[in-house]
Amino acid sequence: MRLSWRLVACTTVMYASVAGCGGDDGQRPSSNGRSGFPAAVPSPLPASSSKTVEPSRLQAALITKKSGQQVLSGPDSGRYGDLRDDGTPSRGMPGVPARCQHGEGGPAQWPTTVDDSPSAQVIYQSGPNGVGETLIWVPEDTDMARLRLTIPAICGRKATTEVQGRTVIVTTKPLSKSQLPAIPDAELTGNRLTMTFPDAGMSAYTTWINVRSGQLVMAMAFMGTEEGLGAHKRTVAAAWTRAQAAVK
């Protein structure tokens, strides 16, 4: 499932509407004005077991709908490849490189070698805010370096485009260690996409946080107008605890 890009698309359209009221190789947005970012430093991971996990167990571990939220997608479970390919056509953003168009840092970019893996996903929405989660139990021999989802250099540049006649400035920055939740014995990466609407004096944010340990990988995406990361960190930590308990 194109979890991250669907959230980006929803965010862009929502905030373009709200504002109205007030090149390279092809994969998926991002920037802080620098040409690139340092690769994430891998932390030691515990040895993984060879057991398998049923997709239904992963689905049962997904975050649940809160009061005021609506289901945008899912909850679903099955082969990750089936969830990845939801049949939704990709929408391009003019001026943003093709490989940066699908939410850099989200599960849409996980390698196809995990397509047969058990997985589950859900997205909830409340007004202009949303949260999505993907869980996947990857094979032992998965190239975990490809799941770190560092930002390609070309995506680390400010891009200006137009959505529904509104100017949008798209940037992405990696999250620092202090901006990520403190989860022991796991590797975390994350970044934040910012879409600024200068003529409306507002910004929209989509934040990805990825956690992995052993064969369990979790990606969470948040969208909204709030700049703070505290609530996101707490949500990710609680979701990870729930997911780990489900696969033990």
**Separation, N- and C-terminal Cα atoms:** 25 Å
Count of DSSP H/I helices: 4
Estimate the strand proportion: 25-35%
Biggest sheet overview: 8 strands, antiparallel
Percentage of residues in helical conformation: 10-25%
Q: What do the pLDDT scores average to?
A: 74
Kindly provide the radius of gyration, computed on alpha-carbon positions and rounded to a whole number of angstroms.
17 Å
Spatial order of strands in the largest sheet: 1-2-3-8-7-6-5-4
Low-confidence segments, ≥5 residues, pLDDT <50?
1-5, 20-49
Give the overall shape, derived from the CA principal axes.
globular
Along the chain, the helix and strand elements come as: HHEHEEEEEEEH
Q: How are the elements arranged and paired?
A:
Layout lengths: L2 H19 L33 H6 L9 E10 H5 L33 E9 L2 E9 L21 E5 L2 E9 L12 E11 L4 E12 L2 E9 L5 H18 L1
Antiparallel strand pairs: 1-2, 2-3, 3-8, 4-5, 5-6, 6-7, 7-8
Walk me through what this model shows.
This protein is of the alpha+beta class and 248 residues long. Helices cover 19% and strands 30% of the residues. It is built from four helices and eight strands, in the order ααβαβββββββα. The protein has helices at 3-21, 55-60, 80-84, 230-247; strands spanning 70-79, 118-126, 129-137, 159-163, 166-174, 187-197, 202-213, 216-224. An eight-stranded antiparallel β-sheet has the order 1-2-3-8-7-6-5-4, with helices on both faces. It is globular, with a radius of gyration of 17 Å. The chain starts with a helix and ends with a helix. Mean pLDDT is 74; it is low at 1-5 and 20-49.
